[in-house]
């Protein structure tokens, strides 16, 4: 009996993953209003009833995609403390964000569209947990300033700058492709990451750590 339950759980997890991946693709391409549950089911290769078994409504599925996008952005920065080296923490945070832009561009675009449209579907999770995360990271940055590890800077604007600089490569990939005449490769992303790290750390009066590698 336990083996059957284990197998069922495995199938359930696999189906849920298929649905989330299909939903991410559809929402990125057609937006929330332009995406029907049937379209997601077709993309996932599953019956519509299966999709609604795991996610009762399109709204519930959309919120799940948004929350998963936020979880993708989790990094070592989440657990950084005043004892850590800000140059190492920020360099790694930038690199991690750039990697997500490279590997999950559709997720980033969905999140960007949601924010542009007023973030109505993020009111609960975003206003509570993400706001709490922001408060905690600002406290760490301020502690670095007080400890003399950073010059007097506003942590809020530092984070906005990092987000804008890294998520740009996903949200505005079409613009980048047109300007460059080709899509960015993994090697291009590595070069871009090094430049963003150099620019952000330089703006903070920090040198790029010798140990930093993309």
Commentary on this structure:
24% of the residues are buried. The chain has helices at 2-30, 37-44, 48-54, 58-72, 86-103, 105-116, 123-146, 155-171, 173-180, 186-203. The chain has 10 helices and no strands. It is globular, with a radius of gyration of 20 Å. It is an all-alpha fold. The protein has 2 domains: 7-56, Orthogonal Bundle (Arc Repressor Mutant, subunit A); 62-208, Tetracycline Repressor, domain 2, CATH 1.10.357.10.
Task: Name the descriptors.
2 domains, mainly alpha, single chain, Arc Repressor Mutant, subunit A, 73% helix, 214 residues
Offer a quick outline of the entry:
It comes from Alteromonas portus. The protein has helices at residues 2-30, 37-44, 48-54, 58-72, 86-103, 105-116, 123-146, 155-171, 173-180, 186-203. The protein is mainly α and 214 residues long.
Secondary structure layout:
Layout: H1 2-30, H2 37-44, H3 48-54, H4 58-72, H5 86-103, H6 105-116, H7 123-146, H8 155-171, H9 173-180, H10 186-203
Helix pairs in contact: 1-2, 1-4, 1-6, 2-3, 4-6, 5-8, 5-10, 6-8
Helix count?
A: 10
Radius of gyration: 20 Å
Stated plainly, the CATH topology of the largest domain is called: Tetracycline Repressor, domain 2
- Distance from N terminus to C terminus (CA atoms, Å) equals 47 Å
Which CATH C-level class of the largest domain is it? Mainly Alpha
CATH architecture of the largest domain: Orthogonal Bundle
Beta-strand fraction estimate: under 5%
Outline type: globular
By helix and strand content, what is the structural category? mainly alpha
Helix content: over 70%
H/E series: HHHHHHHHHH
Organism: Alteromonas portus
DNA-binding region: 36-55
Pfam families: TetR_C_3 (PF08362), TetR_N (PF00440)
GO molecular function, one term: transcription cis-regulatory region binding
């Amino acid at each position: 009996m336990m083996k059957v339950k284990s197998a069922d759980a495995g199938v359930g997890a696999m189906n849920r993953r298929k649905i989330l991946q299909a939903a991410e693709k559809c929402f990125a391409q057609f937006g929330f209003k332009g995406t029907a549950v049937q379209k997601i089911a077709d993309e996932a290769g599953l019956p519509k009833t299966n999709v609604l078994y795991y996610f009762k409504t399109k709204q519930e599925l959309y919120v799940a995609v948004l929350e998963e996008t936020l979880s993708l952005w989790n990094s070592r920065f989440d657990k950084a403390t005043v004892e850590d080296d800000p140059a190492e923490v920020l360099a790694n945070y930038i690199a991690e964000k750039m990697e997500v832009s490279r590997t999950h561009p559709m997720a980033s675009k969905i999140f960007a569209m949601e924010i542009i449209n007023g973030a109505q579907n993020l009111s609960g999770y975003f206003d509570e947990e993400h706001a709490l995360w922001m408060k905690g990271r600002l406290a760490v940055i301020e502690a670095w300033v007080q400890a003399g590890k950073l010059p007097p800077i506003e942590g809020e604007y530092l984070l906005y700058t990092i987000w804008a600089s890294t998520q740009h490569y996903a949200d505005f990939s079409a613009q980048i492709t047109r300007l460059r005449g080709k899509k960015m490769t993994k090697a291009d992303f590595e070069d871009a990451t090094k430049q963003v790290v150099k620019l952000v750390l330089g703006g903070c009066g920090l040198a790029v750590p010798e140990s930093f590698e993309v």
